[in-house]
Inverse folding.
């Protein structure tokens, strides 16, 4: 089992940047593929970005491609989401998820472990 804790959320103006962190504990994090999802009020949880265990492959939702970058530092048991050029529509609770045995990283139901979420608010 792995425990995930997100941090780095906050309030930022449109066009600004934030970097989210997902710190893992409990197991060898390098064995886990990791994804970021978000959920805005009244909307379903949606895929944002994901990264394979070794960091060799990354995946992005079309809505964030070119603005967000996912990366990982397995030595620090941490996955990051660098968010640039933020827009008001990026406002949501952002969740980190991980799973050791996953093929399709864009589907939330495929992830076994989840963090508690961190709020990102982008003002216009």
């Amino acid at each position: 089992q792995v425990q995930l804790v997100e941090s780095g959320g906050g309030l930022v103006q449109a066009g600004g940047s934030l970097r989210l962190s997902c710190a893992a504990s409990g197991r060898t994090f390098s064995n886990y593929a990791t994804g970021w999802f978000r959920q805005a009020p009244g909307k379903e949880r949606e895929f944002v970005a994901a990264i394979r265990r070794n960091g060799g492959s990354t995946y992005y939702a079309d809505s964030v491609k070119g603005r967000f970058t996912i990366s990982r530092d397995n030595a620090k048991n941490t996955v990051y989401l660098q968010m640039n050029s933020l827009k008001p529509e990026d406002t949501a609770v952002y969740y980190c998820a991980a799973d050791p045995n996953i093929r399709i990283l864009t589907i939330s139901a495929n992830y076994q472990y989840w963090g508690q979420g961190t709020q990102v608010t982008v003002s216009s």
